[in-house]
Amino acid sequence: MNMIKSGSSREIITPPRGVSLAGYFNPRPNTGILDELFVKVMLLEQDGLVAGLVSFDLCYLGTELIDRMKDELVKRNVKFGDNLIFCATHTHTGPQIGNFFGMEAADKYLDTLIEKTGLAVSRAHQNLAPAELLCTSVDENPFAFNRRYYMKNGTVLTNPGKCNPDIVRPEGPVDNEISIFAVKQDGRISAMAVNIVNHTDTIGGDLVSADWPGIMERAIQGEVGHELPVLTLVGCSGNINHFDVSSKISQTNYEEACRIGRGYAGIVLKSMNRLAPLGSAALEVVAEDMEIPFQVISDERLAKAKETLKRIGNTSSDKDMTSEGLATGDGPVAKFFAEQLVAYRENCSGLSRKFKIIAIRLGDKLSFLSMPGEPFTEIGQSIKKKSPCRSNFIISNAMGKCGYIPLEECFGRGGYEILPVVGGAPREDTAERIIESGIGILKIKLQGEG
Question: Which residues lie below 8 Å from residue 298, measured CB to CB, with a gap of 6+?
Fold first, then answer.
């Protein structure tokens, strides 16, 4: 078992003015930028095996787009595309990159994105050099809150509004663990990956931004004195965001993204003196296909949706239908979800999709595990609790989008994460199945090593 090498790179992927932004339920053509977006690559190599992370300042990644990126890598004679975890930071001020909620991606931008991805991976591969790998974690996540709340009427509401007197308590926990992985080369830290459980929807509006992950990276770079790539690996945060409902302060603006980004940077920088070398470890990659069925929509639910559409009529809104506004259930929002249910019944109900779950493991010391879509935070906690590895980076929005993955007991309580939307809404038992799959993948090689 030889020494591990590592290589990293970054490429700007900021879209042109006018490309619509993703993450909300209506089109938002961008009118400029607040900060640049990047694709960032971190590769590891040992004894000829190359694996790594490809992180995008995007809201999500579809499996078709990932396949196109892999094809681009093949054209560039990159033969390890299947050993890469492609993931998104989930910024809601990045470009629309797929046909979602009736909105279409800009083909020319996608062509550029794919080309930049190929260039970034190729450059990272060329940059491979001997490296020391370090890791630490800290139980400190002051900017994250469970966004689903039990209300006085017994239901659960997502983002019920600040200082809402009907709030009883959060539905579930917050994963406060922040894990930090660092690559040291030539006497300095040359790249980092940080696993944080929080949503990336802080700014709103129509200006391009990487949100708090981009601000965190710049703050870390400013402190260490050079432009190292800092990959934000967003953990299982389908039911987590940054809103403190006990505070009346506005938390949807660029200033808030700066506060959170710089705050996370401070936590990371403070923890860097605790980074410990991983030492000798075998690099391994394990991948399995997982079938994730869609929900089945009954005739009764379909009839209710059609009744809602008939009652609401042509209600429309020129305002952004953001997550904060969905709790009110007003006409445009009710209409949107009724239309989605009707389309879901026709195009998704009873069908299924396959997603690749990938684990990159450094012996029993550390693992990177991909999770498609937006799993609830309890899913990541369950996997980490039973993982055979000491440090675990559970990466959401990775290797494709399947929508929110709530716990089975959340269905029937309320909140918009359980509602069917085209391309999302996996079957009610998906959380338990993906926990079982994730733990099983992490254990495969350990059992085989004896």
Answer: none
